[in-house]
Task: structure prediction
Amino acid sequence: MSPRIVLATLGVRIRSLYRERSAMFFTFAFPIILVLVFGSIFIRPERLNFDLPVQDNSQSEASARLIEALGTDHVFKVISVPLDTDPKVYAHEHRFALLLVIPKNFQGLHNQRAVKRDAQAWAPVTYIYDPSSTSVDNRILLVRAIMAAVNQRYSGTTAFITLVPDSILSGTYRFIEFFVPGIIAMAIMTSALSNALNSNAELRQKGILRKLAATPITRTDWLAASILYQIILAVVSTVSILLVSHLVYNVRLHIDLMLPVIIVVEVMAFVGIGMLLTPLAREAESASAVANAFLFPMMFLSGTFFPVEMMPQFLQVVARFLPLYYVNEALRAAMIFADSGAVLRSGGVVAAFAAVVFVGGAIQTRWGSEEA
Amino acid sequence: MSSIPHAIVVDHLCKRYGDVVAVKDVSFTVRAGEVFAFLGPNGAGKTTTVEIIETIRRPTSGTASVLGMDVATHKSDIVRRIGVLPQGFVSFDRLTVRETLRYYARLFGNRTHADIDALMDLTDLRPKADAQFKTLSGGLKQRVGIAAALVNDPEIVFLDEPTTGLDPHARREVWEVLRGLKRRGKTVFLTTHYMEEAEVLADTVAIISKGRIVAVDSPDRLSEAHGDRLRLTIQSPGAAARDLVVRMGYHPTPRNDGSLCVAVETADDVRAILEEFHLAGFPAPVGLDVRKPNLEEVFLKLTGEPLAEIATSPADRRAQ
Result:
């Protein structure tokens, strides 16, 4: 292997990418956009909130206190529903999945219970809901929890059991902190696999490899330059994802030496798969189809966007056979839990897999004009 | 270089792909400093043979040696001393001409900018030095390919169909570059399916057909040995003239464009035919052409198959 040749080839690859704007976009900007989009989706429930329309037919001190209770903790943003409208029609017209109706005699019933201590007095607060809404069940549960707390106060005693939060993690982690390592793993996988596949197919189809075969560059030089190139892309991509998620969402993750090691191992694994898949993509045009057929199932089944535990049992079994699952596990173990034992377990699986596919891919990669 | 009488020696070379035999028992030698043309139609086995000599394909049997070294065992030594323009040369789209040449030069360990500039002058690429490869015309791309084949100052330059797909003007520009190589004493191994290219540039022509070499010699001697008759072509003479020529005992070959083509022994035959035309009261022919046999006819005679038409198309002739 000649360092001069490897570096010259690496320079050519980087310069070519730099001048190809669409390739730059998909390599670097796309994962960042995903972080921004999913970040803004998932970060919402942790601050505000659901709109909760309430028709207050009582317009009393007691009903005002109930509405105030609904608005605490910033789970619901209470919206006042005009008194002269049919609440069902209103909910339908304004596309509200859940709407509360406070009865006209709420203050009277309140007085009967709270002042006259009539234990039999109760107030019907109706919730109008749209069963076709996917999130309505969660909202109803939240309303019930708030109502339980209000009822507790009506009983006049202190709640016996009080829940005290205590996270297994050292810092305060939100969903976005779990999401970012998944996006890093996905960005590296996509870039390594499709780049290896596309560039091999394209360079072969165009005959550039045939020209190179008649020069002193060897297959080892070429592979070394490709791996270095992919590692540089992976590092730039990782740094930019971390930077953007820190600046926009104040994401703080644990970063140490384990991170670059996992990145290198992941690059080797997916460049290896890319090389193995190259014979399927004889034409450069079919390369992206082959890459996508491989990337998409992997992305969705490996716990990139949502935890694997949310999937049916048999898909969880499938996930255990996907290399990206172990990359995700290793990255989260390193960046969230700082658990080196778990990193070694998952990272070891990725490393073993990478060794097999990379060697297989390298052996199979043809050089010059020789047919397979 | 004079110590090596033969730049290339090919001995009983065969290449087989499954049941298909691409190259059948090919043997020839190339002298140092000559322009050697491998002439044959597409699919004749030209590229397979040349790629074996360039060390990027392996022979099924037989041997080839370059500058005294066996291609099977001395790949890395050979590639440093040869330059290759592969068929349909392309390079990295987004690199400029200068960057492309610099990259290939670095593969050989050659980094001097002066050399790159001299190469661009030789191939007349200096005005396009900073243009990206993808923006270049076909002729310019070929010239970049030729320049890239010269970055290591090779002793032998292999050019696989250097002018295929180029318009006549661009083709002539490439020929100028090739003549320059010859003047500098390079051995040039040229494959082409353009008869004219071989005729104009080559010292030695090997005619290859269906994987076999059917003749090797200088273009003149090939013409003398195999195309022994003059060829008279008369444009649009009409059916009566054709009948007259047949009655005189000649065998005209029909041509698609309606002209009459007759193979004759001497200039006296030409005079006799024209006199008979005059006596029969035919108007003087509008177009008349008498030429010595050329490689195209030699090729047709030796192989029974025509070369690509493009080299003899009317547009091409006009451009000469």
Observations:
- Chain A has a mean pLDDT of 86.
- Residues 133 and 233 of chain A are 42 Å apart (CA to CA).
- The longest strand of chain A covers residues 50-56.
